[in-house]
Amino acid sequence: MPNITPIRRGFGQCAAPGCSNQTRSSVSPLCTKHHSRARVHGDAQQTLVTRRELRAYEDRVRKVMATGKQELIVSSLKEITRRLTEYAQAELARFHRGHAMNRHLVTACDQIEKVTKSGDSIETATTIAAMFLLRDQQPRRFASDRGFIGQTVRQFRLPSGIARGVTYDPNTDQTKGWFRPMSRKATEQLGRIIIEAYKPWLVHLKQAEGRLQEEEQRISRDLAAAFDGARRQAAE
Ligand SMILES: [Zn+2]
Fold first, then answer.
1. Model confidence pLDDT, tens digit, residues 70-81
2. Does residue 168 fall inside a structural domain?
3. CB of 224 closer than 8 Å to CB of 75
């Protein structure tokens, strides 16, 4: 029996804390603003993680990478990308042969195929690791796991250009870029697949980051002791 209850407008109050707007419809818990934010950012409370904000964390990831064997890191990351591409292509081929598949998974695989084909393996891995580093150091930056996944997926899709739409504005004679969101479920699927694929990379990078941090702290302690010792001697 299909649901024939008409969708009523202005039904109730938005579920986002502190928002008193009316919901989009009787079936949506959110107002228009928070619904679109949930779609674009992964969570209605999540705000955008900008490229600029992420840059310092990407630099830190590169610094950590420099402490390891370069060729081995590069070949491992290329291997992860290759396996991701193969997985996505296999799923898409299954779908094109007529297998019934979850459409969100199909969308996710289509996006993965495009990103891995056009993107740079090392850059992508650096960006994903930077997102995890940002979350480790500023857990409150993310409203929820969903918000984190939404932002990570966005960063994953951005460089390949597939997440960008461009609109020409005749009034200003300029083009305006905008972000093309995926559905919440496709975002979740894509997030799950890439986090799983990059897990070995994320684990080892985090360990190497911890070691680098310890080393930096030790150097700092030694220098503090060195200057402190020198000062004490001078005072005697
Ligand atoms: Zn709202």
1. 999 999 999 999
2. yes
3. no
Question: Is pLDDT at 9 greater than 60 in this prediction?
Answer: no
Neighbours of ion ligand 1 (CB under 5 A): 14, 16, 19, 21, 31, 34
Mean pLDDT on 116-134:
94
CA of 61 to the centre of ligand 1 (A): 36
Q: Residue 229 has what pLDDT?
A: 75
Provide the CA 205 distance to its chain's centre, in angstroms: 16
Q: What total number of domains does the chain contain? A: 1
Task: Please give the distance, rounded to the nearest whole angstrom, from the Cα atom of residue 196 to the centre of ligand 1.
Answer: 32
Q: Check: CB of residue 61 under 8 Å from CB of residue 130.
A: yes
188 CA from centroid of ligand 1 (Å):
22
CB 21 within 8 Å of CB 44: no
Query: What is the C-alpha to C-alpha distance for residues 74 and 116, in angstroms, rounded to an integer?
Result: 15
* Ligand 1 midpoint to CA 13 (Å): 8
Give the whole-angstrom CA distance, residue 178 versus residue 41: 13
For residue 98, count other CB atoms closer than 10 A to its CB. Answer: 7
Phi, psi of 167 (to 5 degrees): -120, 135
Boundaries of domain holding 87: 47-210
Q: Is residue 36 part of a domain?
A: no
Question: What are 55's two structure tokens?
Answer: 């840059």
Specify if 232 maps to a domain: no
The answer as to whether 231 is a domain residue is no
